[in-house]
Write the structure tokens for this entry.
Amino acid sequence: GENVEQHPSTLSVQEGDSAVIKCTYSDSASNYFPWYKQELGKRPQLIIDIRSNVGEKKDQRIAVTLNKTAKHFSLHITETQPEDSAVYFCAASGSGGFKTIFGAGTRLFVKA
Amino acid sequence: EAQVTQNPRYLITVTGKKLTVTCSQNMNHEYMSWYRQDPGLGLRQIYYSMNVEVTDKGDVPEGYKVSRKEKRNFPLILESPSPNQTSLYFCASSLGGGAYEQYFGPGTRLTVT
């Protein structure tokens, strides 16, 4: 079946450094790729998303890139801050847009 | 305030005792979905609904039932819960399908002994 692989599972960076999380997907019909942030004990919340007709999207310190040929997309966080510490999930949906497959998550630690 | 609500937030039950977790949204969203979250496995989709009376299976539907009789409500039913259904459950809704931002409820932590 369809799946989304996410790496790394854990990432530790120093405050001010950049963090990169990578995902690959298997369903070539996928056309929407969101990223969700989940703080400890909270619900997941969307931080950025990208659609298949766009290669890159940026929102302040956060950017997402998509390579449809290689079927992978990445989240880039620059100038990390302690409040960026959380679990990040990538996801892919398509094939009519009804089913959503999430990656296993990346726990990001930003050390002050 | 636009929101997705779930009840109960915490539930401890015994094997085989039927239970229902309610989910409600006030954003007039057509799409609603249930996920379970387990350590190391991320969020796995259980069932989703594209509109009233229209539901379909996600990746892990075994042991669960859903219904969508009203647009705002999407309850998750466990007819005979088992310990392997111990998990954190999230309901979510979106404007139209999985290709839009999903708004998640606060989660329901279920323990089946």
